[in-house]
Each structure stands twice: as structure tokens, then as C-alpha cells.
Amino acid sequence: MPLMRIHKNKTHSWGIWKMQESLDELLLSFDNSSRYENEIENFSSSKRQLEYITTRILLKHMLGEEKRIAYHPNGKPYLSDNSYHISISHSGDFVAIILSNQYVVGIDIEKYGMKIDSLVSRFIRLDESPTVFQGEKRWSYLLHWSAKEVVFKILNEQNVDFKKHLKIEPFQTESYGSFLAQESRTVDNRLFNIFYRIYPEFVLTWSVVE
Fold this sequence. Notes:
This protein is α+β, with helices and mostly antiparallel strands and 210 residues long. Helices cover 25% and strands 32% of the residues. It starts with a strand and ends with a strand.
């Protein structure tokens, strides 16, 4: 099984899965696969079906038991028994989940690709400073975008403009580390500590609001 990694500490845990199996292979991971087969019938996209099932398998691996994922009207996920705060992200053939039984959390995974270059003007501010990593700025662009996704998920507010309302404080891009993100969408103007790791195929960012 392509479970890439599960990271745990005292306040939270996160996991990454690379989708490589067929849907039938994935469904074998559940004691009652028919329930999940019924749930994915409404998805016309086979990729969406794989994401749905893989997310629940990763959650099972992280907790050692099956938990039901539900969704608020705005699409924000939560566990039906409210045992953990949860955040979920998909990109390409990767799925990431973060959990905490104490704190609000956010996670984002972004697959490496040239598409980000054409989006830079939509989310990079003049007072932000993407830096070079491995000879290019694309990794830094991905981290800026990914971090803003994390803040957006935690804020849970409508009409958030990634360029106007979210600012990444200057940092030097490395293989892993942390940096600060400031929001101006709310009156609180909250500051978030964003952790990150760069992998050969993607970047991962997350935050835990203690």
C-alpha cells in the first residue's frame, strides 16, 4: 500500500497517501465495503471516487479504526463523533489529512508543476518575497499558495482574497521549516505559524492553532 508517511506528536498528527491502487483494491480495506460503494455512486468522476475512499483509508490508518467524515454546508469536513478536529487536502494523486483532539488544524498538499507560474499574479503580493530553492522560485510559489490555503481553511470565512487578505512574511525556502502568515480578512488580524516540508513531487503545509 502506498501510505507515504504518518507523523505524530503531542498536539496533532498528519498523514500522506499516494493513490496508486484501483478502487476495488481500496474497498477491500473496509469491513463493510458496500456502505462506501453506495456513498460513491453519486460521484461521476472516478478520480473523485478514489479521493473519497483513499481519504477514509488514510484516516483509518492514522486512528486504527474507522471514523465517519461529514461535511458542513460550506464543505468543511468534520468527524461525526467530534473526536478530532480534521483538515483534508488532495492534489494530483496525493491525499493528506491532519488531526488534533485539542486544536483547530489546517493542511494543504500541492503537487509540483509549471501551472503555478501562470497563477502567481493572482496570489503573490508586492510585499511578499518568494525565494529561490533548487535553482528556481516555483517551490516558493507553491509554498505561498499552499500556506494561504491552510489559513483559508482555518479561518472558515467567506470572500477571502488570497492576495488582498493573506500575507506570507519573508522566509528563506529550505527543505523544511516554518514561516508566518498574516490574515486581514477579520478584525482579529490573526498570525499563523505555518510548518512545511518539500518532497520531490509536492509541498506540504500545515498549521495548528493552539
